[in-house]
Amino acid sequence: MQAKSLLSEGPFSKTVVQCCFGLGHVDMAAYDAYFNNELEDYEYPAAAIKESLSHLPKVG
User: Fold this and answer.
1) Residue 51 backbone phi and psi in degrees, to 5
2) Which of 4, 6, 27, 46 is deepest in the core (most CB within 10 A)?
C-alpha cells in the first residue's frame, strides 16, 4: 500500500526500484544445520593463518 501511495507523490511518481538478492536461498542449508545443532567447531590451523598474514602489506 505504501508503494502505491509513493507512486503518486513527488520524484517517485515514475520509478519504483525494488532490490532482490538471491542470497537467501543459498544460506538456507546453513540455517538448517545451525538450528539443528549440526555445525562442527573447526579450529583454523595456526600455520595457515600465519602464512596468509605474511602476504599482507606492512602498514605503519
Assistant:
1) -65, -40
2) 6
Q: Structure pTM?
A: 0.37
**Cα(27)–Cα(39) distance, integer angstroms:** 14
Beta carbons within 10 angstroms of residue 40's beta carbon: 5
- Compute the distance between CA of residue 4 and CA of residue 9 in angstroms, rounded to an integer: 9
- 44/53 Cα distance (integer angstroms): 13
Within-domain flag for 59: no
Provide the CA 51 distance to its chain's centre, in angstroms: 27
Instruction: For 25-52, write each residue's pLDDT tens digit.
Output: 667 888 889 899 999 999 999 999 999 9
